[in-house]
């Protein structure tokens, strides 16, 4: 299958006053459609930085990221954010749900932000609620849910625009091991049955095993 993400000599340097921190050095990667990639590495090695660059949430210091052949940093901000919203689903460690919206409203937020009519997406919402196993909880607010359930809502929200690519930054980092396994099983299903490409950052060797490919981030480089 073809590539979905490619990086070319990707570099990221942060400047802290006089000091320059070279976080990523000439990273060249290709991720193919349908892969489930696990990114591992020591804390502070640049895993989140890499994931954010892959998803256009941050800009490289130099080098390029291409999503399905289109260079992200060459796009206008508005175009890039539209692509991000429609073609990439993000999942974070702390779920990033809106506390005073119920579960359905949280899931539908990307549809609303895209200026689309909610009523056209009712059946899709039902399907996604079924997939993540939260149909009965649809009117609850995040604070009424467990951590694992909140992460399921975040995964549902990441799927609602039917992106081909899911980027997840330590999605089980805040969960116990049983719940982590359930979340990883859900990602596996989304990869295998829905054909989504997944890139996850993880600290857990258990979680990394769910991937079809393991990449290590260390000293600014990425190793197979
Ligand atoms: N916005 C920022 N400004 C300055 N330094 C940053 C910023 N974001 C990350 N860093 C630094 O870049 C390095 C990599 O961070 P990060 O990508 O978050 O690592 P990881 O996710 O692997 O723990 C760390 O040294 C961190 O302190
Ligand atoms: Mg991180």
List the helices and strands and how they pair.
Blueprint: E1 3-16, E2 19-32, E3 36-40, H1 47-54, E4 62-67, E5 70-71, H2 77-87, E6 88-91, H3 103-113, H4 122-132, H5 147-159, E7 165-169, H6 177-192, E8 197-201, H7 205-208, E9 213-218, E10 221-223
Parallel strand pairs: 3-8, 3-9, 6-7, 7-8
Antiparallel strand pairs: 1-2, 1-4, 4-5, 9-10
Helix pairs in contact: 3-5, 4-5, 5-6
The structure holds adenosine-5'-diphosphate and magnesium ion.
What is the end-to-end distance?
A: 19 Å
- Radius of gyration equals 17 Å
The poorly predicted ranges are none
Content-based structural category: alpha/beta
* Bound compounds: adenosine-5'-diphosphate, magnesium ion
- Beta percentage is 25-35%
**Quick check: average pLDDT?**
96
Q: Summarize the main sheet.
A: 6 strands, mixed
Number of spatially distinct domains: 1
Helix content: 25-40%
* Basic shape: globular
CATH class: Alpha Beta
Q: What is the CATH topology?
A: Rossmann fold
Q: What is the correct CATH architecture?
A: 3-Layer(aba) Sandwich
What is the number of beta strands?
Answer: 10
Q: For this entry, what is the oligomeric state of its chains?
A: single chain
Main sheet: strand order:
6-7-8-3-9-10
Q: Can you write the helix and strand succession as a string? A: EEEHEEHEHHHEHEHEE
The number of distinct helices, counting runs of at least 4 residues, comes to 7
The CATH homologous superfamily is called: P-loop containing nucleotide triphosphate hydrolases
